[in-house]
Structure prediction request, 573 residues.
Amino acid sequence: MEHNISLITTLAGGFGLALIFGFIAEKLKLPALIGYLCAGILAGPATPGFVADMHLASQLSEIGVMLLMFGVGLHFSLDDLLSVKKIALPGAVVQMGLATALGFGIAHYWWEWSVGAGIVFGLSLSCASTVVLLKALESRGILDSMNGRIAVGWLVVEDLVTVLVLVLLPPLAGVLGSTTAVDTSGDPLWYTLGKTLLLVAVFLAVMLVAGRRILPWMLMHVAKTGSRELFTLSVVAAAIGIAYGAAYLFHVSFALGAFFAGMVMRESDLSHRAAEESLPLRDAFAVLFFVSVGMLFDPMVLINEPLHVLSVVAVIVIGKTLAAAVLVLAFRYPLNTALTVAASLAQIGEFSFILAGLGLTLGLLPQEGMSLVLAGALISIALNPAVFALVKPLKELALRRSAFARKLEHREDPLAVLPMTTERKYLKGQVVVVGYGRVGRRITRSLGERNIPFVVVEQKRERVEQIRNQGLVAVSGDSAEPGTLIQAHIADAAMLVIATPDPMNVQRMVETARMLNPKIEVVIRTHSPDAVEIFRKDGLGQVFFDEEELARGMKAHILATLLDKSADGHKAH
Prediction:
């Protein structure tokens, strides 16, 4: 008796090919995502040999989209976005607009596609891959730097704009010339849009009011059972269940439902565990998503339409890069930041596939458009490490050859220098506090209560603006750079307090401070046990280790409580 095992065949073929090609990609120092897409191309109908079930692959990719978007929501940090909002918000919106206009212009005026196809195509080229960006920043150790935060914040805004597009595209499909989703209800456009936005608003209200209470409550009670399997199951069931419920009840996309499920679950104290437990399943279905996207790619487009492919790659790698660099420079950030952010955006990825796939489903984007988006993604992601590698030599060449570039790199930023009106007490004998996070704020509050003058050094420009608005003294910049500490008048300071937990640049900070002020006292905070040993061995200053301080505080409380009880017992006798 024959059994229909197309699901098992599709899973076995998809995972097996993804493993082989992902491994090859990693060995070639390329993102594994390239390998997954190549696996899909090989399993697709456009290449000879094994062909996976396209219908099943499409449904599996929908699960991949749900879990991918759930993960994006789970890691979405409003605080991180707000810290760079003044550059990330307008920068991302304008850059997406320019990239969309470039893509639309090529598709509509050169290739003579419809207006709807041009808009969807341009939007697909405008949003970069979060997966590729995070890997690139992590491998270069700049994820937590000012440049890294700006790049990540920029992509968060792009993700949010794309989510909005995913909501608005279906009701607008008929107006944009859809061949399959024409609205036959006869309702005017304003009514259709209003109804869609109302349903989305109701869904958001339900999630923010009921979901914020129910999901964390559910996670807490499941966690109390002590069953790891049940906890993982609850996370996955919530992600897929809410995504399906959102689509069925409120007619919003699976992607939007899963994204808000992740955002709401982030409110729980167990959000980190939820992310960790669901990661293997998210990764597995994300792989299937990229494989299924690769199955839609027709390699013949590289041979039949080479100029089309080159123009797509030019928009992604050159057009988006130049637009981002100019925008960052326009916001008075240095040349190095502009080049780093520009390199971060010189690729497209998962959101481009989701958008192009929706355009294909709605009958807006032709099949050739999907193949061109995929070709652009494959080539731009493969080129991205090389683009990042060019940042440093390009910067050095520009600074060496161009006086204008030197002016851009070192131009005066009002937040990077202390105002001329700064009182004398903040310029001599002051405490220089590096980092204004939770620890830095507590330290400065205590210093202020005792009328001890201090200057804050902080990378985030928006945070420096907030500090100055409170009447405090602060400078913006990288504290590992001598120029930043010089602006904080480190040469005449009494003490340097490094309140940021990042151990990477501590040694350079201390060396710079002691070179300018050999007698300065140094206090260092860290949460790395390895860093504690190194800092103490090198005699960098008084080191405070988070776990040690916690243990010391708990020990003091325990001993004090026990001694009090012992004393009360003796009195009773």
Summary: The chain has a mean pLDDT of 82. Strands lie at 431-434, 454-458, 474-476, 495-498, 521-526, 542-545. The first strand starts at residue 431 and ends at 434. The longest helix spans residues 189-224.
